[in-house]
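Record pair follows.
FIRST:
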Amino acid sequence: MEISETLAAGRAAQELRLRRGEFELAAQLGHVRTVGGALSGRRRVARGEVERLRRAAGFPDALRERVRTVGTAEGADLMEISPGRFTRLARAGYLVPVRFYLNRYRAVVWLYLAEELRAFASGEPGLLTGRLPRTPTGGSGTTAEGAEEKAGAGEDCRPRNWRGRRIGLLLHESDDRWERAAIVGSVLDPFQLAELVPDPYERASLNRLRPDLAPGRPGSEAGREAVQRLLTADDPDEISWHRSSLTALLADARRDRQAPRPNDTLPEPVGPEPEPPLEPAPTPELAPPQPARTSVAAREAEPVPHGGRGRPLLTRLRIRRGRDREGAAVSRGGGADG
């Protein structure tokens, strides 16, 4: 498809009358079909897809309602249950969040699709009252038994279920095998990733393709640590599942193509690196020659050009000065006697 027939994400969101976050969620859920790499950050929307959505009944309110998210209080109102029971259902894994954010107190606020909550309330009326059953009947990634006991014991399935949902949405967007392996590996800690992927070039490729599971990280260090804990798999069953998935995806990726490697395959030197050659010291600029100052004795010792008549000129001058002094002395002596 030509680029001229597609729209950038920002322009498509504007024409669909969606906020940027609503558009991203609509694309992840498949309500808006996009083209391009899942992890490139440059997904585009075909002009025909935009026109199709604009011609749909109830546009734009119907589309916005499909991606509307609510928190615990509003979700409990939609399901006509108490906020406490809503939280117990979510912690036990029956209600799967689609997003989260940290409030000003760095507490995690989970968000749910309003459309899914209404569907759950109409489809599972028995779970809205009475004691929760031992085995959950809904919720992605919930495999352990005893939901009521888990909820009462403090175990929280919301982070695990959110991670599973987020990975599933990203995998749905990508057809590249190395990208898909990077998506699954993004929830494993670095030690487990190094154990499963010992090749440093393959690990570098996975890290380069690693998706941002939760865009818009908080600025504080404590907030970033809290978010990082939510991004990393911590349940043994979840870790085992992602390890198996990554192993299978890596096998497919290796059959497809090799991870990028440097062109130069010569072994690196083992000893210390050689020191770079020393640059020649800059030659100091020489000052222009100055006339030498010589002493009187040195000047008298210098050769003097001859003034003719066979004697040096300086010798003749000295003899003349001596004769003048003698004549002056005779004159002074004669004047005194008279």
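SECOND:
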Amino acid sequence: MTALSVPPVDAPDPPATARLLAEAAGRIDAPDVVLAISRGGVRTVHTGGSAEVGPVARERLHYELGSASKPFAGLLLARLVAQGRVRYEDRAADLLAPGLPVHPVVRRITLRHLLTHTSGLPGLPADFYPQAVPRWSTDPYGNYPADRVVRAFLRARPRHRPGTRWHYSNFAVSVLGHTLAAATGTPWEVLLHQQVLAPLGLEATLLRPGPDSTDATGHRRDGTPLPALDTGGFTAAGALRSTPLDLLTFLEAHVGGAEPRDPTLAAALAEVTRPVLRRGWRHAHTHTLTWFQHPTPYGPVLFHAGATLGQQAFLGFRPGTGLAVVATATRRVHRADTFVATAYGLLTETR
């Protein structure tokens, strides 16, 4: 295992933080583990795992983010709103298929509903499962392309009116991605790069596998390696791959890093940290446009986790404190898994 300090290079590597990360990594069983903390721009990164280190250092490999891709989609929407190109209350069906008859409930679904999981749509389309189940552990999404996601949305019959219930939905966030592409006349990959990745300097964040030997290899629980995930038409909900160093850069932009030159990007970064809904018993669960929010003794924390067939990721930060936490691991999630709890502890218990 290694611990290293990365830019700013003239900042010392706090030994206490290095020890904290080393101890935390020891609680995670995976072929590859990366835990990283940024405190006011001073970064400490710990790498480890049971696999041999390949030609590319672990902290520079591209890891599958799964649902931790969603904060990128949320920031993109917030920036497009700040630019006046779309509104949160725009109806998705009107942008995707103007004039096409759809169910009245579908007609009322807005961009805000899609992003905040309040659209009334299920987690995945009903017709997704018959084609996915035979390939559930290898390639459940690859044969469900973008046009099929859009058709499933336009013919949907949601059980609940938009805005009345919270239900986590990869389907909804995927529809959001296709809707923004239609509204701007720009493919999702290009749109995300123009509006989020390039402005933040995220050169190692990709929507598809990178060059040879630069992608982390996911593993089943028994250690069997898995091929790279193909998300099919669910790109906006879970297709991103990124390095822990790029992910720290993304989070640092949310916690008081250098002020973006473009005021619409600054406005979007502020917007995605504001609470927009509360749910659950006594409204105990708080959400921003795209982050889960919990209280801690050190102030609120915002976070999002993600998992693919053989990898996991965790992103979190404390607004106004300069603290950001990134964690990645290359083993499929399981019931006894400690990955999320360990990363969450770094975020909520670190002074």
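COMMENT: The radius of gyration is 20 Å.
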